[in-house]
Structure formats: structure tokens, C-alpha cells
Amino acid sequence: MSNKIYPIGIQNFEKIRREGYFYIDKTALVYQMVKTGSYYFLSRPRRFGKSLLISTLEAYFQGKRELFEGLAMEKLEKDWIKYPILHIDLNTEKYDTPESLENKLSTTLVKWEKIYGSEPSEKSLATRFEGIIGRACRQEGRSVVILVDEYDKPMLQAIGNEALQRSFRDTLKAFYGALKSKDGCIKFAMLTGVTKFGKVSVFSDLNNLDDISMRRNYVEICGISDRELHETLDSELHGFAESKGITYEELCAELKQYYDGYHFTYHSIGIYNPFSVLNALKYQEFSNYWFETGTPTYLVELLKLHHYDLHRMTQVETDADVLNSIDSSSTNPIPVIYQSGYLTIKGYDERFGIYSLGFPNREVEEGFMKFLLPYYANKDKVESPFEILKFVREVESGDYESFFRRLQSFFADTPYELARDLERHYQNVLFIVFKLVGFYVKVEYHTSEGRIDLVLQTDRFIYIMEFKLDGTAEEALRQINEKHYAQPFAADERKLFKIGVNFSAQTRNIEKWIVEG
Q1: What is the pLDDT of residue 284?
Q2: pTM recorded for the entire structure
Q3: For a disulfide at 290, which of 204, 205, 276, 300, Cβ 3.0-4.6 Å?
Q4: How far is residue 145's CA from residue 319's CA, in Å, rounded to a whole number?
Q5: Which residues of 208-233 are buried (b: 16+ CB within 10 A; e: fewer)?
Q6: How far apart are CA 96 and CA 501, in angstroms?
Q7: How far is CA 49 from CA 27, 43, 54, 56, 258, in A?
Q8: Are 17 and 23 in contact (CB under 8 A)?
Q9: Residue 472 vs residues 429, 475, 502: alpha-carbon distances, Å
Q10: What is the pLDDT of residues 322-370, one digit of tens each?
């Protein structure tokens, strides 16, 4: 049994170091950052270690040398100078009115004004912030360090509310503008967030901000690399494998499949989700730890709002400009889905500067599909997982009649806003269902112009299905035969079913299926 204490949910560097929690040494990268620049921006998915990075910077600029004993920083830093620090954490508030953000910022400013004083002429949030920076610098005799954690929390909570988002953007733009006007008083500034949301507009005055989110030399600044995993947790991995009754190699492969796969730039190493890895090691169990701590409701609203074709999510191509900016008026939900950690970089075409995106790992892919199902199908959140289990059991036992009746129930009472684009809706529901079934049986899924064909394989059965929209089931079955879809399985001993299916726009449901065995 490991004697490591995992810092799950602990984001305070001092607490981790003083109380003996497990820590992966990122301080060489922190040193590199503070010695080679002054203004930084980093975006990473939630629970990826951004707050811990900010806390590490805070301890460093407080000159707390004793916290860095045994770490790379201890040998690198010689001076250990203490600087005045202004730390803003926007993570702890519910932002639903313009006043909620103004109150949060004002409360933070009041706390600093008690230390550094205030001037009656400083009326706005921005001028008060400027005044505090100037006085802190004068009183302490040193330049100021500014650390902003989750700068974009208000913007994220206002997705879909254009007026509120504009209000937040204007407030934050003016507030962060103080960093430029007081440049001479600032030693170092770091802003972190999930998204580069409105980066252009919120930070348009801060043209000296170095965005390291996709910089190769900072890929490992948050999260866990394969090298770090094996260097610091190897004996724990062996223990985990033993408790699961599998080999070390099998355990590592499963861990990689579940939690690795985040790529923050092209041709880079994969990064493991730290929250999920530490939970899996602590509880000796694979589960969707990261996914279960935050439901991406705002992403689902975006997908539904734009009638997005979910099948495209598995094969998105885009460029750096799209990945790096989120415009609240844009109809493209992909940038916010990518930056939130539900998609990642899978490939890169250097000739055209085009990125291919996909799900990073099984945890995200399965979690996202399970989460989407009740929003698209006529099922509640409690029923949904059991429905998938029943689907799998039905195809494994050859009970296609029950399978299609269950599928019909998914289309009953289609919500009006989804029914407006019926073809897209029926394709999305089928995609989610077969994606989830595909975690347990082999599924090949193809779609084009109103039709879907798929091959589903179990130990005992092969199903070849053709889905038509407003055609006939007979026509769908004829296509299977005329296109010789069954040819690759001619020598296969498993029982093969050819199934033609028709979906009716009038009834908004599967109208008929015909089976040829």
C-alpha cells in the first residue's frame, strides 16, 4: 500500500509542501517563466493544476525558500526576494448580474486598500486598481506581482447571454487595462483560465501578454506527462496493477486509454489529466473522476443552439485562429469545447496550418456522450446508463426487435427546438447511442446525406444496418444487398443480420425496420 498522500482538491502550494502531500516538481518551468518574461497567459481545462501553479508562483515571489527544499527551484534561485503580491481569484463567485462581478472585484480592492490605502479621486474599479498598484510599489520599495486565477469565470457563466457577456467584457477590459498603464510598477503578471474567451477584446490593450497555452516548452507546466508518471508513481502503478489482478503493462495501457491524450500543441507529448490519475491511484479504480466533477451544461446548450452535427466532433479540422479565440457571437461551438478540455489536438497539417481535433481519451469521450444522451433523447439522466446496458445486452443476444423498440422510445416526444432540424436530430441521437454501445461492442459508423450505415459486431452476431430518412425500409435493405455490404463477412461463422430501417419525418420516429437473416 502506498504511503503517498494525494493532494486531490488541494490547490495551495504551501499546504502541499508543509503537510507532506505528493507533488510533481514543476518548479524548473516556473523558474524559466519568471526569468524569461514578465506578462503571461495560460489556458488549460478545469482541474488541471492552474490554481496550484498560481499558488506556486505566489510562494516563490513571497521568497519562501523553505517550501522549495528538494525541488529544482532550490538550486536554480539564488536571491529569494520578497515582492508585494496582488492575487485575484475569480473562481469563487456566481456571476449572474453585472453587479456580481463588480462586487467581487470591489471586495478584492477593499482588502488591498486596507493595506495600501486609497484616494478619494479613485472612483472606478480600474482607477482604484491602478492606485493600489502604484502605492504598493512605492510603500514596499519593490515592483508588484499580479496573479489572476480563472480570469474567464464570469464570461463562461454568461455564455448565451449576450448583454451580460458584453457587460462583463467591458468591466474586465477596463480593469485589466491597469496592468498596461502601471507597467513600470509591475515585476510579473500571470493570468490563467479555462478559455481564451474574448482574449482579443478583454486583453486588447495588453499587447505585451505572452500566451504560453500552445507553447511547446510549457506543455508540461500543468498535468502529468508519461515521464513524470513513471518517475514519480511507478511503485504505485505496480500496486494498482496488483490490486486489479492485471499486469503492470496492461494497467499502464488502460491508464493511458482512460486519462492520457491531451495535446496542447501539435506533435507534442500527451498529458494525463492529473485529477483523474490521482483519484484512480488513491481509490485503485478506473472511473470518470474529472468528468463527474463538472457538468458541461453550457456546451450542450451551445451544441443544441447551433444544431451541431455531433458526428463532426470526431473529425474536426480547424486552424490556430479558431482554436485561440472564442467570440460570443460565433456560431462555432468548437473553440469553447476544445479549450474546456473535451476535444484535443490529434494531428496537424503543416502545409496548411490545419489542426485535427478529437476526444482526448475514453473518460472524456464516454462521459461526454453519456451526458449528451438525456438532452437529445427522451430519457432522464437516471435511466440513460441502464438503457445503454440494455441495448448492449440485446445486440449480444440477437434480440434486434427489443433493440429497435427501445430505440423508438428514444425519439418519442422530441423537443420542439430539436425537431426543427429533424434530420440532424435523428443523426445525433443515433450517433450518441451507437458511440456508447461502441464502448462494449465493435461499431463502424458512416453517415452521408440523410442516410446512415453501420456495422455492429459481437462475439456471436454481425448486424449490417442502413438507415433512411423518409425513404422506405425495403429500399434501405435493397441498398445493403446491391452495395454488397455483407461481402467482407462471407467467410465469417457468426450469424449475420441485414436490417433496413426508415425514419419518418412525419411521425418523428423510426417508422419500420425489415430484417433479413
Answers
A1: 97
A2: 0.91
A3: 276
A4: 34
A5: ebebbbbeeebbbbbbbbeebbeeeb
A6: 46
A7: 13, 11, 9, 10, 19
A8: yes
A9: 20, 5, 5
A10: 887 766 556 678 888 898 899 999 999 999 999 999 999 999 999 999 9
